[in-house]
Amino acid sequence: MDHGSIEGMGAGLVASLLAGTATGLGALPVLVTSELSRKAQDRMLGFNAGVMLVATSFSLVIPSMEAVPARVARPEAARTCAQGASTSRAAFLALLAGLVEPVGALFGLLALSLSSALLPWGLAFAGGAMRDVISHEVIPESYRGGFEREATTGLMWGFVLALVLDMSLG
């Protein structure tokens, strides 16, 4: 499929809507609990970091070398709760973050339609930016509460789950 075509743009928009919806759905566990313990927050942040590492590596960096479209996962709600927001506010902000993805995808698709040579550079830039957020914000925040072992275990489980899903769903 030519990704600069109308069909390619439609597929990209649908994929970004699904990714945005997944971001919003990722907030649901936060809504079922009134208060998350710091231990649970650290575990969830670690899990999110693991998922983000797989998304960065296998959906951004490697495809940037192969010049194919990317899927992005950004778990937001646990991080927002860890920063002191209420669970309903965290869920709302995660939903808003998910709604931004289709808009960004449209800009990306327009840029791609202008020049497919931009795609690998854009993917590599997004991958680098996401790794920076993971290593400088998410992982340190998951360790700040004193539950490093739980955060690391969460990171490993998130990495494994996201890798299995990526490999099985393509």
Using brief descriptors, characterize the structure shown.
globular; single chain; mainly alpha; 170 residues
Short summary:
The chain is mainly α. The protein has seven helices and no strands. The protein is globular.
Describe the fold and architecture:
This protein has 170 residues and is mostly helical. 80% of the residues lie in helices and 0% in strands. The chain contains seven helices and no strands. The longest helix is centred in the N-terminal third of the chain and has 29 residues, at 38-66. The two termini are 16 Å apart. The model is unreliable at 68-74 (pLDDT under 50).
Topology diagram in text:
Elements: H1 6-25, H2 28-31, H3 38-66, H4 77-82, H5 87-114, H6 118-144, H7 148-169
Helix pairs in contact: 1-5, 3-6, 3-7
Radius of gyration: 16 Å
Question: Number of DSSP strands?
Answer: 0
Quick one: biggest sheet? none
Helix content: over 70%
Low-confidence residue ranges? 68-74
Give average pLDDT, whole number: 76
How much β-strand is present in the residues?
under 5%
Number of helices: 7
